[in-house]
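Chapter summary example.
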Amino acid sequence: MRAVVIIVAAWFVLAQVSVFAPSVDYLWLGARWAQLPKFPGDVGVLALSFYTSAELVDVAVSIDPKCQHLVALDSATMASAGPGVVTASVRVVAKELNRTCPANVVINARYKRTTSGLEDGITKVEYAEVFIPPYPAYNLSTRGAVLLGFPSNITLVVENPYAFTSSLSLQGQGARVASPIGSVKIGGSRAEIPVVVVAEATTASLLVTIQTKDWLGEPVSLTYSVPLFATPPPPPILAISPAVLSQNKFNSVNITVILPVVADGVATISVAGAAAPRSAISVPIKAGKGSAVVDVYPIGGAVTFTAQVAYSVGGVSKVDQVSATAAVQQEAEGASAVEVKPNRLAAGVANNVTLLVRAPGPFNVSVTVSNAAVDKPAPFRFGGVGEAAARLVVTPLAAQPVVFTITVRHSGGVDQYTVTLPATSASIFTVTPMPSLVKAGGNRTVVVKLVNSGDVAIERAVVTITPATGDVAAPSYTFQIGRLAPLESAELPISFLVPVTQGGAVAFTYNIVYVTELGASGTAQGAFYVQVYQVPAVNISSVVVTPPRAEVGKPFYITVTVLNEGFVPAINLQLRASAPEGVKPVANPYYFAGRLDPQASTAIPLSFNATAPGRYDIELTLTYIDRFGNPYTVPYTVTVEVANTTAPLTLAPATGSTAPTQSGGWIIATILAVAVLAVMFYFALRKR
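The structure predicted for these 688 residues follows.
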């Protein structure tokens, strides 16, 4: 009997070693991404791997996420798997990125093949933490002004919320990129890249290509179109001093040329209405400014300086022509003196002119004006004692000098003076909207940039802006602005409603009433244009659920009708469905429709199967882009009622059970029973 007890105890020890010693017949290897979801609602593929030393037959592998960020679409089935490493691919929908989701992985095999045939398989439930990685996505914008035809320095702002390391290259559409040439490395969540670009059209844009890698190290190439809004450059400034020259003598004149940009060049200046030592004066320009001194002898009523300005910026050559005119005044020869202010007039507008006369004792003055209209009778007479002043409103009839003939009669005799004032063009305004490209449909706001591109400062002005296109709804805007020096600007915001059917150029007229520092008042009229582009207007027009009340275990169908109510096509039209727990897609819940023409519709079918009764909200996400690459998203929620089926229910073990395998449970139970019997038998023998 003792021998029997020893044999049973030895068998028990061997069984313990067999059961509790480390085993290598199965090993869970984990879950990893085989295909990443690219955006919330996208479908990804998870690879679930394990090792088995035996060949498994009729294998099913599924994942059961325990969070709202991940939804399983299907499970993987294999007729046989192993021995060795087995990888099963299952599709999931990532409702959010950059999240961690706990999940149970269930591995079922009906049979295990052995040398003697088939035996019971295995059921394993493993725990996995699935990190849903972010996918490369960027936001791009520009900062800075772009001058049409000029190399302009702007800043390209790249926002990268997930801080992917990448490289960036630039191309121009309607523009030429002078710098940077080649790729630029960027990292971190934000980068600012200085760019030198030459815009050749007002609707120019930057084509930005970004090369990076996703979470798996796979290369990703993304392309973005960033619009540039170019404005015409202001002309150079030609300044002369003094602005009034004396007759019958050489006058030293300081000439200054100022460019609208910082550049080097040369200005060739010619003189009309005066004798000069040289027929042309060359003025070198360094860092946007050049100056020279020239002696001129007036031989006419006014002296005009004309500058041919040539300069180069970033390999772009530019040639401009500007002019300035100096007045010629006879110097006092007798006991009297005459002064006329201002020293030049604005052509085509009314100018306030002041005549100041000094003479000994009582005197009388007679004034006649040529080439201009005057608000006083001709000749105009006034007088005084010692000093007298008179004011005239003078409107030049053309852009030619205005001649004042002034005769002063005093106790010492009669003096006659001839004063010639140049009539130059009035201040020139450059009016540019920013941005100059807006979407059709809705309220739009642009900033009208008003630049004083002339060579005379504006003391004050009233600007009225009125829409000239009938379909655009906007009021008339009136702005009051103060002093504007040459090349200074004012920004005037306006808002207007654009119909969804509007396309092309929208015209606005402006009227500017102003007063210059010369005392001249005038008006300027003109128009500017805002380009309107249309976008597709895609909506979900109807959703039909068949049958209206679904049943558990039976498929139901959702037909989504999508309508493009816009007037341009929608591109890359896609529909994604996100089903909650309790509803499983039968087919792929991602549908790529492609292009949808304007005023056209398409029907998109979806199919699901409900696994439990209840009321479920299925989230639909419709996405598309326009021809400019701008993305659009249309969300929609479908509510489905699922009832219990009329067929008898069959209970099945719940997914995610952590109970041991059937064969393993019987082995352990048998071993424990034998061990208990052996111990009881041993103590019974000892008691005897």
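To summarize the output: The CA atoms of residues 41 and 95 lie 5 Å apart.
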